[in-house]
# Entry
Amino acid sequence: MSPDRPAPSHVIAHLSDPHLRADGLFAGRIDSAARLRECLERVAASGERIDAVVVSGDLTATAAPAAYELLRGILEPAAQRLGAALVVVAGNHDERRPLARALTGADSDAPLDTVTTIRGLRILGLDSCRPGYHSGGLSDEQYDWLSGQLATPAEHGTLLVMHHPPLAYRSTLMQLLDFDDPGRLADVVRGSDVRAILGGHLHAPTFGALDGIPVFVAAGVSYVDDAAAPRRALLAVDGPQSWNLVDVHADQITCTVAPARAHPTWSALSQEVLDLLAEVAGEDRRELFSRKRG
Ligand SMILES: [Fe+2]
Ligand SMILES: [Fe+2]
# Structure
């Protein structure tokens, strides 16, 4: 790979599952508002030029109106400070009407499906929730809407955001709450400009593909699933919370899992190496840093 590889055309901060409560601790132990604020501080501390903050559902714990107001009060100023667009979708712990009231002012229980285009990159937010259920799916009307949107390609392609990822997660309990028809979704996106699908719901950084399209799942910023627990268990962990830094390049999209909380750090390089690297450029820089010594 060239040392002069161009920077990504777009950078997305993908967060998921804040499970906000305005009236106390989530599960009696997690200050989910503090967790979300801390994660957004980590996003800002990355120094990246973030184009969009994406939050893929389970925005609140119980869909209380006050929790949506709290969500808006945290997310909107944070996105504004970053100069980033804000894309949120509903999760199974959300309810459409209070979400719409808080975020758009609409008194509606229609699915909140959105289109956000940033310098030629299209982000389609899909409400993958089935009213009255924790499992996921899209209605006939939503599939038609998605087909209509995808009929016209975007310059840099399209990212789909949906709470329920179209993947088979290893937990047999979470499989009861999964997306109901990955095959139908694959039929709709096949041949389109969809380049990646961003999801949540699993509370574990999980990666797979739908008909060759990468699916990137962000873990919860509130709590994490103990992903290596026995398949029939469902155990929550207060850590390691993370967010996904999604780099969009012309020829590929990469997803890097980043800590959502601050941890002690140290420089992996000595000052001597840092000083040397500061003095050289181009291919010499690669030779200097890559070649083994001793
Ligand atoms: Fe969740
Ligand atoms: Fe969920």
About this structure: DSSP finds seven helices and 13 strands in the chain.
